[in-house]
Design goal:
The structure is a single chain. The chain has 14 helices and 14 strands. By secondary structure, the protein is α+β, with helices and mostly antiparallel strands. It folds into 2 domains: about 190 residues, no CATH class; about 210 residues, no CATH class. The strands form 2 sheets. Strands 1, 3, 4, 5, 6, 7, 8, 9, 10, 11, 13 and 14 form a 12-stranded mixed β-sheet that branches. The chain has a two-stranded antiparallel sheet with strand order 2-12. A hairpin with a 2-residue loop joins strand 9 and strand 10. Helix 3 packs across helix 9 and helix 12 runs antiparallel to helix 13. It is elongated, with a radius of gyration of 34 Å.
Amino acid sequence: MFNRDRWDEIIEALSRNWFRTALTAFGVLWGIFILVVLLAAGKGLENGVKKGFGGIATNSMFMWTQTVSKSYKGLPKGRRFNYDLDDVAAIKENMPQLRFVSPRNQLGGFGGANNVVRGLNSGAFNVYGDYPEYIEQQPMNITSGRFINYGDIEGKRKIAVIGEGVRKALYDNGEEHIGTYVKINGVNFMVVGTYSMVSSNGNAEEDEKQIYVPFTAFSQAFNMGNRVGWMAVTAKDGYSITQLKSEVFDIVKNRHSIHPEDDRAIGNFDLYEEFQKVDGLFIALKIVAYFVGILVLLSGIIGISNIMLIVVKERTKEIGIRRALGASPWSIRGQILMESVFLTIISGMMGISLGAALIYILNKILDANGPVEMFANPSVDLGTVITALFILIFSGLLAGFIPAQNAIKVKPIDALRNE
């Protein structure tokens, strides 16, 4: 129950020597301020790194063929093999846990010869033969027109979706591009859309110098037949592609007579596994932030404990009189603990407020000056604030425990003799 007299006494005791109280409280304020700022900075770094994934389906892997390293069923080691569309169908049929299995083909690329021409302009660009679902695995902003659809796949339409980098290289500023044609390795494709990357870990400009065409038209135009260069495989929610990929590899190995223990025959990049490593890093950073912040906070708690010991010493006579008048040990202990918790919470909440103000100002600066690479929207959530509040309450009780124990050990007769 709220006891006004007790609270008046707490405020009077702490304000009696306000300068000493303020200096003591500053230790807690600084500790919780450091904790909040470190957590916010870690969150900003996490947001920046994850933003770099640009919404990409992180529960994915890319797989390609490599040289067979073991002989099997009379077939020699060292041979090469290729994926085909039947492999894609077999994986889809036998692995219902997978959301997407996207076959892909590619030609050209950075450092290669000019493979794309429009009028007098030309350039060397990556050209991909893809299915419509690839945009779900690598999200893009369609800035004009549209992306590939299944009508394009079934009709083997020679259409192309070009990146903004390609558009700037092949077209004049403001020139109409939808419905025009670009020549890829001597074959005309009609431009039906343009895209920009959501984000790509600092490689967005290079990733916008790419062209996407229907997989079937790519195969027909460039004599790929039934071959598949590589695949992008995404698991459904609730499944881990890291755990499923061995089953996918087994299907392919069985179809191409590859030794079951030949781990070098199939190359892969497990995006989910890499993403989990990044997540683990940020968990470690959060633990370090709490560790450092609590250590700084602990120095403030020690200061409060010391000041409460001095307060108890100064009020020895008062405590003795209260004990002589019948005050229970718990009443004396509760008074000291309440003073300690009150001082800790007030100073701690001031630290949280200052930290929140700094985070607000930092976000305003970031908004005004544009995005910063690998750092975005530093913040602390409500859970962090509640955690900090519990830390403050526990710290206040810890700081007041020894002084409170000393207070109840004071004998009334000895206290009344004290000068």
